[in-house]
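# step 3/5: fold
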Amino acid sequence: MPPVFRFAPSPNGYLHLGHAYSALLNFDVARQSGGRLLLRIEDIDPARCRPEFEAAIYEDIAWLGIGWERPVRRQSAHLSDYRSAIETLSARGLVFPSFESRADIARLVAQREASGVWRRDPDGAPLYPGAAKLLSSGERARLLASGAPHALRLDMTAAAASAGRLTWTERGEGPCGETGQVAAEPDAWGDVIVARRETPTSYHLSVVVDDALQGVTDVVRGQDLFHATSVHRLLQRLLGLPEPIYRHHYLVVNEAGQKLSKSSRSTGLRELRAAGASPADIRRMVGLPGA
């Protein structure tokens, strides 16, 4: 079977050079390996995702000369797939509802940091500081019945113990030069959110479900997601999903060495195209050979 690759942007802004590099790299390696390239629209955030950004994604990657298979998978049309995964985790006692607001969590983190160092995840965010998984079943049921806002979190201690030792195959180069078999360390992320009340999924959950359902064999994405692969491997093991091969590529950065953002007009594809740049120019700008 030919390898299957995917480019999976979120329609919460216009694409920039970093997106172009990732899309073009996926396109190139798919062609070189005789593989297939899928496009997935990761639009689970209704507050930030907009139709005009989605339309611009299709326009920009077509302009770059990238072809992709139809139909395109849009996450918002497949929420039942993520609910099913949550039900599987819940049936194993691996998720719990947490009722703290963002303000509550910030206050709890401040209290813990005042007493000493509080652990942070690889992205620099503080680990979940609450004690919701210690609530009695009666109190938990009462809060749920009252309609109290909540998120569903993975009980990382129980999940990691259930999954056992995890690794992944890395064919790119991690932030510290990691290649080959890399040891996954999901506990570094604490009790991660897997669903919210308003959206029955999270990035971590939906990406592993989508990759499995779409038959993705090779995940080519930026180094900023290298450490998140530990959580993805954990969820794959817990849900009985296949393990793709990973290739984390370098990030295109600005003059200050910072990761590009969708608000950066100087590197936006629409702005560069309007200024007269060609697809060949974009390839040169991101360090890729001509098509």
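# step 4/5: annotate
The CA atoms of residues 138 and 275 lie 62 Å apart.
# step 5/5: archive (pending)
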